[in-house]
User: What shape does this take?
Amino acid sequence: MAVVAMLASLCACGQSGAGPVPTVAGTQTIVLPRADQPTVHRPTLERLKREAESSGRPLEEVVKRYAARVAATSSPRPTDFEGYDPAVTDQDVAIDGIPYAELVDLGAIARSEGISYEEAIERFGSQSSDSQVIGELHAEFPEEISGVRYVDDRRGLRVGFKGPIPDRAIALARTLPMEVTLVGGKGFSGEELRRAQETVVSWLRSRPEVATMTAHPDDETGQVKVTVQPKVMPDDAEEFKRRLQLPQPDNPYITVAVTLSAESVAVRPR
Assistant: This one.
């Protein structure tokens, strides 16, 4: 089973503010505090926010009007008939580096999350640039990355590595406008975890006693979590699990946990 780093304290090191945090044996954790990370500058959105406040109109409406003006002056497409919003379909329309289509999505997210449009932009507005950095991490360390996940309502990022934390990964993490926690020495990679999941799923598809099943990897713990609906619910759940004879992962840091369900879990063996 993968060893999960427990953050005991934050130790600032050097000018960067990043520091190793004491963890259980075999792991290494470095935290890049939010205060030491880059600050996001959005001058146009700040100006539009002031305009919204002074005019009494919602910021989302002001942003839409601005984007439409930008699209109207940069595109030959018609802009004057009802229901047509050129800013949504024009991929070149962006405000402070955020594509307008994403700003539209942020309005929907704000309503679904019950937060303001301003907060949605603050929390989720960097997703395009964040995705580029995350993509670079996966591209440069495909056999080392154990997992990447947002934490604290997307205000922070947690990145795990099978072995030591690469210096290049720290450099990339320093470009993100949020707190980043890097954990090394987890003992498994995301690719190994994915292969272990595929092996388990393939095996369960062949088992006649399985009605439906589902599986997903937990890149924090290195565990493949499996839920199985037996065709006949057994009296002895543990004995049923043993009879499944699930193949064990080659990597000892990866484990498989099985839960039985009396209800369908949707994926049927073929």
In short: The chain has nine helices and ten strands. The radius of gyration is 24 Å. Residues 43-124 form one domain.
